[in-house]
Design brief:
heterodimer; A: 264 residues; alpha/beta; Rossmann fold; 6-stranded mixed sheet; 4-stranded antiparallel sheet; B: mainly alpha; 78% helix
């Protein structure tokens, strides 16, 4: 059975179809990449699947639960790392984890164990009691992933997990994502603009454009599909999305740069 | 049984959110000190001058006595009314998203924040009590009166901080919120019995003052803080008004809170 399944999932903002009749499924333990230009509908899709945004129409099932009818059940099954910084800078790393362990009903005895294993897993043990303000960008990302896996979710949503990180920090995050898939059997849905990232992490990717899926498949199958010898995923991306006007507005860009500055 | 399980989960999560806010405050308490400057100025400058002038009829008690509970209510209002800006800030960062994806009841997220505004307001109450004593205000030290004051401060902060959260959910950006926050604070304060009795107001203002929750906050504090304090309304009515308004606002806030990320 698929871990995520959508049937004609649609979200309108006024008359704009941000996500337009999306139908796809993700199998257990897959790392699935959602690619596409800004404004293609990636974040809107993630927001719907994590119950942050109600769909206008269509069906979405996550871990067997309906995102519209059983949002509370879905919330127990998923972990989410938003695109922007979601760890609290004014608290220590340990406190960030403690609060979420409590919100996810992890019982007292188990709590410390889980927090320490999450810290160890993400390589943050030595900085657990430092304020997150003093963390590097890569450490913040790792802490956020640690926060989102405390309750051992079946599905983890990562919205641009390596945005604003330098190549070293990025590789460390990649290693941890791979490890999550292997050790816990977590299914992972991530969005990214980084084709390298999609190529080296994802079992399958979908390229979204203007609210629909333009193509879907394994990175190698997609490279073959455009009949262009030596094609990279970049070529595939341009091939399927080249018709769209450049996305992103002033507010989004300002926000993105602010985040990049804070992480960098 | 189901209702009890829901309620215990709701209270439990409310306390987790309060714990979060307390931990933040513990790491950086400077805000509480800087916040105390304004009420101090009101009491020391405005209060002293008007006490000398005897311009405002305050019955049996001196003007500084009359005004102290008003300034306490004012700091409860001021510390709470800009609480919404923190919500917008946390939304811009992505913190709110993560809380909303967790299986935490929305009302617990809202009430937890509101009650922690109450705890912040309590630190102001301590400072204002100290200033009031120094200025010779006769304080009611009855433990029940003190307990009632704590309740009134927390209830008042819950009311105004949730009001602020609702505005934040509606306007969604910091710039607009600051504008509206400024616009609301002063009318709420001046159209209340905080620094002059309702009886000296023109009729139209009296009507506004009577529907202003701050009036009831001031009234109950005046009854509880002062050694010979009296209330205009029965204390039960004051508490009831504040409780009813707070409950309604928390429910509306819980409904609106998820929309802040859309």
């Amino acid at each position: 059975m698929s871990v995520i399944e959508t049937i004609s999932l649609t979200r309108l903002f006024g008359s704009l179809k941000a996500v337009d009749g999306l139908s796809f499924s993700i199998e257990p333990q897959e790392v699935f990449g959602l690619l596409g230009p800004n404004g293609a509908g990636k974040t809107t899709t993630i927001k719907m699947l994590t119950t942050l945004l109600p769909p206008t129409s269509g069906i979405g099932l996550v871990a067997g639960f309906d995102i519209r009818k059983q949002p509370a059940k879905v919330r127990h099954m998923v972990g989410y790392v938003p695109q922007f910084i979601s760890a609290d800078g004014t608290l220590s790393g340990y406190e960030n984890l403690l609060i979420f362990a409590k919100l996810y009903d992890i019982p007292g005895k188990e709590r410390e164990k889980r927090i320490h294993s999450a810290l160890a897993f993400m390589g943050l043990e030595d900085s657990a009691n430092k304020l997150v303000k003093q963390y590097s960008g890569g450490m913040i990302r790792r802490l956020e992933i640690a926060q989102s896996i405390l309750h051992r979710p079946e599905v983890l949503f990562l919205d641009e997990p390596t945005i604003g990180l330098d190549p070293n920090a990025r590789r460390i995050v990649w290693t941890h994502i791979k490890q999550l898939q292997k050790e816990f059997g977590t299914t992972i849905l991530l969005t990214t603009h980084d084709m390298d990232e999609a190529d080296s992490l994802c079992d399958r990717v979908a390229i979204m454009n203007l609210g629909i899926i333009a193509t879907i498949g394994s990175p190698s199958a997609l490279k073959d599909s455009i009949h262009h010898p030596g094609a990279t995923l970049d070529d595939v991306f341009i091939y399927f999305t080249g018709n769209s006007i450049e996305g992103g507005n002033f507010r989004e860009t300002a926000r993105m740069r602010r985040i990049a500055r804070r992480l960098g | 049984m189901k209702a009890i399980a829901y309620l215990s989960n709701f209270l439990n999560k409310t306390f987790v959110i309060m714990e979060l806010e307390l931990r933040k405050l513990h790491h950086d308490p400077t805000e509480l000190i800087t916040r105390a400057v304004q009420p101090a100025l009101w009491l020391l400058v405005f209060g002293q001058v008007f006490t000398k002038m005897r311009a405002i009829p305050t019955g049996d008690i001196s003007y500084i006595d009359f005004m102290s509970p008003g300034i306490l209510a004012q700091s409860v209002l001021f510390i709470s009314i800009f609480y919404g800006i923190a919500i917008i800030w946390e939304r811009d960062l992505g913190i709110v998203h993560k809380f909303l994806v967790s299986p935490t009841p929305r009302a617990a997220l809202v009430l937890g924040k509101a009650l922690s505004a109450g705890l912040r307001a309590m630190t102001q109450a301590v400072i204002i009590y100290i200033l009031a004593i120094l200025l010779g205000v006769k304080i009611n030290w009855n433990p029940l009166a003190l307990l009632g004051m704590v309740l009134a401060v927390i209830l008042g902060a819950t009311c105004f901080s949730t009001f602020s959260l609702i505005i934040a959910c509606l306007v969604k950006t910091r710039e607009r919120f600051m504008g509206i926050g400024q616009l609301l604070t002063m009318p709420l304060f001046f159209a209340s019995n905080a620094i002059y009795p309702i009886s000296v107001m023109p009729d139209w203002l009296q009507i506004i003052a009577r529907i202003n929750p701050l009036t009831y906050e001031v009234d109950i504090l005046r009854g509880l803080m002062l050694a010979n304090g009296t209330t205009t309304y029965p204390p039960g009515i004051d508490f009831l008004v504040l409780l009813a308004v707070s409950t309604a606002l928390v429910l509306i806030g819980a409904k609106l809170y998820p929309s802040v990320v859309i």
